[in-house]
Write a structure and sequence with these properties.
- By secondary structure, the protein is an alpha/beta fold.
- 35% of the residues lie in helices and 12% in strands.
- It has 21 helices and 20 strands.
- The protein has an 8-stranded parallel barrel, surrounded by 4 helices.
- Helix 2 links the parallel strand 1 and strand 2.
- Helix 2 runs parallel beside helix 4 and helix 16 packs antiparallel against helix 20.
- The longest helix is centred in the C-terminal third of the chain and has 33 residues.
- Bound molecules: 4-O-methyl-beta-D-glucopyranuronic acid.
- 4-O-methyl-beta-D-glucopyranuronic acid binds next to loops.
- One of its GO terms (cellular component) is extracellular region.
Length: 708
């Protein structure tokens, strides 16, 4: 692959045009610190372009009137008006000072009512007497407030509106890069990466692309991400050294991400005391091992004082862990947590632990059960700076899975929920698959019943949300330009999980597709919605049916291979025979997995009567003639959805053609090329899945279509 020209990188959701409404203002910036410096630099860049002006911490009383103020609440307001009394103050200061004082008074009233302050990252936006005011208690809040204004665009400078308070739902909003430092012989530079090389590393060294990493940091801050883990959770020999002799490489990245309020985390190997420290053991209860982690961690913080913490994949898919020493995951995680605690760091300890050397003949072992079986009994034993990081489903980022029962099983543990923005199982950024509707469904899921807490609540009270990044050195960042929307949406849902996926898509469209290229803005918006809103369900329709999962080509996981994983050790089976298909995970006759859910889901999933159609084959083995709630039989549903899915992709292709004159030609060309591949691949899925089930079942299609 040729090296991309760094000047040619797509601006994603921060094109210059998105700054126009801000860039024409006369702006006061109030406050001190690195992040306020960033705010100033950002607005200066915009005003240079669009003709506005910026003043930082002005002291003179004769300030020119400003129409945008970005201020820390602790900073003295412009020309120091008298402290506001409740209600709009009667000051004779400039309009800007009046607006700030008014916003502050409104804020005080609002926070008194809610009983909460803005916190470390919250902010308010208000508009009063022709002045827009962003106030924050802490610098990060000011930065997020600025990006909210970017989102608002001209609407942020419209008619007066009262103070609006914004606070993130999740304290930590994290992306994990599965980036290798060395190119891995099988997995390449980025494991499960579909957007070229790593933006951090190349061929065993830091890539040193300051502009690219800074641009990335801006994009992440603009959608609310505040933590990044910079190397793969499968920690190989070179990557292990990032913790010790190659710590400077990590520090360089931390320096680039810090101005955008992003903290660096590092994936470490549990065997580090052996492979890096030369100790004979990594036993978590061994005092020498504890000392090694304490000393090593002290060195990390001496070099990177705001280091976020460690991320660990242990006893999983060949990674070392505490099991080698007869210890459990609480022993392992607490060891690292103890070393991090003095500095306020956290350990993200992944719950993705299962037997990947299963005998397919063994019908009693169920991979879906594994995370719960390993972790639920440990609830209450983890230190409070341990975050158990749970994949959202019990298997592995399939197109459809139930929510992981672990999320409801560990009330005494801080949990983070892990998503996969990189589209390993959802079309690998060659297929359009807008994932926010899927994530939104998961985040709104209430495992204890409709009146109970949701997955988002559990994450918000615990360790927040994490996702595997989909970014690489591709000029569009994500390979498929429309996959940028997934990254943007993940950040926004971390900030506010109640946002509707379509509203988030609107934000992304407005920011990304600059208004002056829109001949017909409504056509562009409508068409993108038509292509993207339901694209996850379209993908589901032409791939593995009814929640059964996998059926992908082993190894690279792209394209259909119905039996590809059927007789492998990975625990990913569908058990199709001539009579039926699906995995019996009931308590009555199957693996008992349904029993890991609290009522009502233990009951709802147990019965074929109440199990939702879309998860039927995840929980039950049923005959092909089984009647779904939809009124269709399982076999006819398989045929119908596969034909329908391909038709929907054909419609996507046609719709995208209509946009030829409305979007940047380079974006248009790239998406066109990807859609052609999506269509080819969707047809392949349709024909292989339909032919497979036709041959197995011998049941013809009710509509006599070609089944091959
Ligand atoms: O889905 C699997 C992927 C592996 C990945 C693993 C994990 C980083 O195929 O490539 O390893 O999940 O989540 O650890």
């Amino acid at each position: 692959m040729s090296t991309p020209d760094p000047t040619d990188v797509h601006p994603a959701w921060l094109p210059d045009e998105a700054w126009r409404a801000i860039g024409v203002r006369r702006i006061l910036v109030r406050g001190e610190g690195t992040l306020v410096d960033t705010v100033q630099a950002e607005v200066e860049r915009a005003t240079h372009r669009y003709g506005g002006a910026v003043w930082r911490n002005p002291t003179d009383v004769d300030l020119p009137s400003a129409d945008l103020v970005l201020a820390l609440t602790g900073a003295p307001p412009p020309d120091s008006p008298p402290a506001p009394e409740p209600g709009p103050p009667e000051t004779s200061g400039t309009l800007a000072s009046t607006a700030v004082a008014t916003a502050k008074a409104q804020l005080d009233t609002a926070t008194a009512q809610v009983g909460e302050s803005l916190g470390a990252e919250g902010f308010v936006v208000a508009r009063h007497a022709g002045v827009t005011v962003v106030l924050a208690d802490a610098p990060a809040g000011l930065l997020y407030g600025l990006f909210e204004l970017v989102r608002l665009g001209a609407a942020g400078f419209g008619p007066t509106h009262p103070v609006r308070v914004h606070r993130p739902a999740m304290a930590r909003r994290m992306l994990d890069h599965w980036d290798n430092v060395d190119v891995h012989p099988v997995m390449g530079q980025v494991e499960r990466g579909y957007a070229g090389g790593s933006i951090f590393w190349r061929d065993g060294r830091p890539r040193g692309d300051v502009a690219r990493v800074t641009a990335y940091a801006r994009l992440l801050a603009a959608c609310g991400i505040n933590a990044v883990s910079v190397n793969n959770v499968n920690v190989h020999a070179t990557e292990a050294q990032l913790l010790t002799e190659r710590l400077d490489d990590v520090a360089e990245l931390a320096d680039l991400l810090r101005p955008y309020a992003i903290r660096v985390h590092l994936a470490v190997t549990f065997a580090a005391p052996v492979v890096l420290g030369g100790l004979p053991t990594a036993d978590p209860l061994d005092p020498a091992v504890r000392d090694w982690w304490a000393e090593t961690t002290a060195r990390v913080y001496a070099r990177i004082p705001d280091f976020g913490g460690y991320l660990v994949k242990a006893d999983s898919e060949g990674q070392p862990g505490p099991f080698s020493y007869g210890r459990d995951h609480a022993d392992g995680a607490n060891l690292l947590a103890e070393a991090l605690a003095p500095y306020g760091g956290v350990v993200h300890w992944r719950a993705f632990v299962y037997n990947h050397r299963q005998d397919w003949r063994d019908r009693s072992t169920d991979r879906a059960r594994a995370a719960y079986d390993h972790f639920a009994p440990l609830d209450g034993r983890f230190r409070d700076n341990v975050i158990v990081q749970v994949k959202h489903g019990p298997m592995d980022f399939q197109t459809r899975e139930p929510v992981s029962p672990v999320i409801a099983a560990m009330p005494g543990t801080r949990l983070a929920v892990e998503f996969q923005v990189t589209q390993e199982y959802t079309g690998q950024q060659r297929h359009v698959c807008y994932l926010a509707p899927w994530w939104s469904e998961i985040l709104r899921f209430a495992p204890w019943g409709d009146d109970g807490r949701t997955v988002a609540d559990v994450a918000a009270d615990g360790g927040g949300l994490v996702a595997v990044s989909n970014v690489g050195d591709d000029r569009f960042w994500t390979g498929h330009p429309l996959a940028q929307a997934n990254l943007y949406a993940f950040g926004r849902l971390c900030w506010n999980p109640r946002l509707g996926p379509q509203a988030v898509l609107d934000e992304w469209i407005d920011l990304t597709f600059a208004p002056d290229t829109r001949v017909d803005p409504d056509l562009l918006r409508r068409t993108l919605h038509e292509i993207m809103d339901d694209s996850w369900r379209t993908y589901e329709r032409y791939t593995a049916p009814l929640g059964v999962g996998f059926m992908v080509r082993p190894g690279h996981h792209y394209g259909p291979d119905v039996d590809g994983y059927e007789y492998t050790p990975w625990g990913t089976y569908h058990f199709a025979d001539r009579d039926g298909v699906g995995v019996d995970r009931t308590r009555a006759t199957g693996t008992g997995f349904t029993g890991q859910y609290p009522p009502p889901f233990a009951e709802r999933y147990e019965s074929v009567e109440t199990c939702p159609d879309e998860l039927l084959l995840f929980f039950h083995h049923v005959p092909y003639g089984h009647l779904l709630h939809s009124g269709s039989t399982v076999i006819q549903h398989i045929y119908d959805t596969h034909f329908e899915g391909v038709r929907e992709v054909e419609a996507m292709c046609r719709r995208w053609e209509w946009l030829a004159r409305l979007v940047d030609p380079a974006v248009h060309a790239r998406v066109t090329e990807r859609l052609a591949e999506q269509l080819r691949c969707a047809r392949e899925w349709r024909d292989q899945v339909n032919a497979y089930f036709h041959r197995k079942s011998g049941i013809p299609d009710a509509h006599s279509r070609m089944l091959h």
